[in-house]
Amino acid sequence: MLPVKVIDRKPVQSKSKYLSKIFEVLSEEEGDDFDLIISIEQYDISFRDFSHFLITIDHFYGRFYKKGFLSYAMSPYDHLRASEIRQGSIEIIIEDILKKISLNEVVYFFLMIKYLPAIFKETSEAIKNITEAWNNYENARKVRLERKNLSKELRKEELLKNLSDDEIRKLTRSLINRYANEKKSLKKAARFAAQKLLDVKFRKRKS
Questions:
Q1: Which residue ranges make up each domain of the chain?
Q2: Tell me: the pLDDT tens digits for 174-186?
Q3: Whole-model pTM?
């Protein structure tokens, strides 16, 4: 088992009601001892795309670091680690995720990984259009509408069933802004996720 630093702090209660609603659906049990499980196919894995996928997830996590992303990059002891990697389908396990970052951040982190495939389009031109439009939300919105936009993808999800249309719009905008930070690695990470990502879920740790 690989080492994981557990930061001993209680998760901050979400100030955004829609984030709390999402977590209520994700986690059927109370407490803060949840692991985040990322499942991917185990065959025919591109080293390069897999590395971009892992680096992008690390960057997602690092941008929640309280001292800022640059400080995170310079703090190897705080870098995100897999507590365990299991075979079958490959399961990457991040233990005690709620003890590492706040509830708000955990929900965003989960969604950013889960919806990586949704932002990948079958042609590289679609990715090019989306990444070029990041800095202009209205242009990005038009691109997404033309290609089953992220907001529409979110509405399909059972875990978001308790969210209003306005909350879906707010969530979509927030996710887009967060994805925009990773333009350099996003294309390959999203391609890998579209091809290999099987599931992202929370699991209550057994006492």
A1: 17-204
A2: 888 888 888 788 8
A3: 0.74
